[in-house]
Design a protein that fits this description.
This protein starts with 17 loop residues before the first helix and ends with a helix. Helices cover 69% and strands 0% of the residues. It is mostly helical.
Length: 634
Amino acid sequence: MSIGPSANHTGEATGFKEKDLFLPAVLSVVAIIAVAYSNTLFGPFQFDDHLYVIDYNRGKGLGAFWPPSGTRYVTYLTFALNYRFGGLSTTGYHIVNVIIHALNSIGVYLLVAGISRTPLLKGRVASANAIALFSAVLYAAHPVQTEAITYISQRFASLATLFYVYSIVFYLKWRLANGPRQRWFFYILPIALVVLAQKTKEIAFTLPFMLAFLEFALFEKGRYGSRVARLVPFALCLLIIPLTVYGHDLLLWGGDKAVGDEVRNLQLKDLHSISRHDYLLTQFRVIVTYLRLLVLPTGQNLDYDYPMYRSIAEPAVFLSMIFIASVFFFGLWLFARSIRKGGGYGALAGLGVIWFFVTISIESSIIPIKDLIFEHRLYLPSVGAALFAATAIFSLKDRFAPGLKTSVFTALAVVVFAAPLGAATYSRNSLWTDEAAIFEDAAKKSPGKERVHYNLAWAYQGKGEKAKAIEHYKETIRLKPDKDKAHYNLAVLYQSTGDRAGALKHFKEAVNISPRNATAWYNMAAIYHDMGDDSGAIERYAEAIRINPGYEDAHFNIAWLYKEIGDYRRAEAHFSAVIALDPGSADAHYNLGLVYSKAGRGDLAAGELNSALAIDPNYTEAALELSRVMKAAK
């Protein structure tokens, strides 16, 4: 049994050469992506974008990204460049992501075309370049890619894929090149791309293995030693990710903090807090979900509520394991048998299966990650899925309708498959254009997941829809009573609506869970002051200052209360603290002047009042008080 026609069908039989379809491939990919992603360019920042893009770049310059240390350095640098030239306008970030997707889709065409020209496959696939084009179209149009492209911070996945795919493209170009100059250029370039891939996202760890597999599986036997030697530089790149994660101090180059330390710390935490055994068992189920999404991309979800499985005896785990093993070994068998017997279609299809499982192995095996499933993890593996699907479709065509022109069939296939996939992508992307819509969708599909409700509440809060925000913060707390951020944000909403009792209740819950939340203590103090309980307010302002000695507003407010009750010594101390933190605070100088005046220290009062007027010459109250102090001195 084999996929496709016999080996005597050659690529030349179709009349197609690589150059014939490169331009149609580019035009098809660009057109599909331009339409399917046209509604994303003004979409807001979402979810982790606030951490990895906004918070990480605010207050930093490009100088903070040198030296090039830390995990995922290259992606962080691209975010920094976006921030440098576009600030917080999301359009530039989206344009870069869409361009990366277009380049990756074109890269899929070049990859499949290059593989088809290797010595053991050349001439064996009648529709090789058409398969390459159709693989690129499927990859570009598929809605499962939206999370890696439209979700700005998942540039981690798409950019790593860019370097991954093109490193193989140029390696194949080098292996198939003739001129010595060209050969050395195309040898050095993929090494550089492998290095960049390793510093973009950890999924690139499998890249040297993939290159070695392609070298030994698709090229004719030669001197074993020379073939190994040419792969050594790529193999050495395998050290980059372990050294980046574990050799933290070694790679700081004299600095005290590496770029992306937050991600690295979370990775190390997951490695020690999540069972590798349980994670692996769960991933059998997750991979089945991934395969279902590739075949039938319905029910997509930003934040799946996926259970952790702990026993291989559970039917869902055992059946998934059997199914995945069957698919994987079928792919290996298909590839090996086709290579041995000269069948090109089976080799390409089997290679697609192998690519899928190799590239997904980093995030779906024994390396535990807190989030069990995310659709953006399919971005690199789906290259293999696109190759398998395209090969299967053209294999059926060449077997059952060999007389049908390949050009006609290719055009029909592109239209038939690209239209519904592109429409689904456009529809999915429409949810990303609103801060709340994507989480409203997730809440319908994962109603029992507290993080979904928390993020939906946060989105509503940002839009000023307080009632809806309160509803979903309450649901978050019902699902996870110890979520301090939900209590805090709910308290802030209650405070803004004048519900002091509700605000105090949840601020107290927030500090019971997280006692070092200085802002919660500060807000509670403000409520106590509004209620006329100044001693309660002073107690909580003092706690906020104890936690954060540099809390300027807390120093000012407690100083003002001490001034009002006549405790001038403490008022002086805290107004002085405000001035030490912000010498340009005219209000602090003015109030300290009042304190000195009330304490009968006119000379010091005049000095502070003059300082207030020097900062703000139109400070009427300071001028009047200075006049009074000067008269009293006479």
